[in-house]
Amino acid sequence: ENIGDFEIDTVIQTRAKNECLLTLTGRKSRYQMIRLIPDKSASSVNQALKSILKVYQINSITADNGAEFSRLSEVFDPDYIYYAHPYSSWERGTNKNHNRLIRRWLPKGSKNATQQQVAFIENGINNYPKKLLNYKSPKEFLQTG
């Protein structure tokens, strides 16, 4: 694991609306990126990932086998895309734990989040000290190592 290795996932908000959250979690830094996307389609995921790649350096991505990640190779080098084995959620445990943190703010069935709420949640997670990082926050860890 290196800084720049990320796990990617989607978090569905409500069944009534298509909007969902795209989450990327740093495997080593635990840095979290959350983007509100219009639906769970591969094109929506790729569009959000393109905007993230303009700002952040990502070395590798680990995804599940969902249809929304089937076209990642259109925006990211396929040599550095890894897919978890089916029914093996522990292979992306960091991401699953962080998605559980998001659910503290946005429980299942809650009304759709705004961009402002998503930014607030992302900021809260990235500024929360973690024992694993010697009680540094993910943001501090990225700045100081």
Automatic annotation (TrEMBL):
Biological process according to GO: transposition
GO cellular component, as recorded: cytosol
Gene3D superfamilies (UniProt xref): Ribonuclease H-like superfamily/Ribonuclease H (3.30.420.10)
InterPro entries associated with the record: RNaseH-like_sf (IPR012337), RNaseH_sf (IPR036397), Transposase-Integrase (IPR051917), Transposase_IS30-like (IPR053392)
Domain of life: Bacteria
Molecular function per GO: nucleic acid binding; transposase activity
NCBIfam families xref list: transpos_IS30 (NF033563)
PANTHER family per record: TRANSPOSASE (PTHR10948), TRANSPOSASE INSI FOR INSERTION SEQUENCE ELEMENT IS30A-RELATED (PTHR10948:SF23)
Protein name: IS30 family transposase
Species this chain originates from: Streptococcus canis
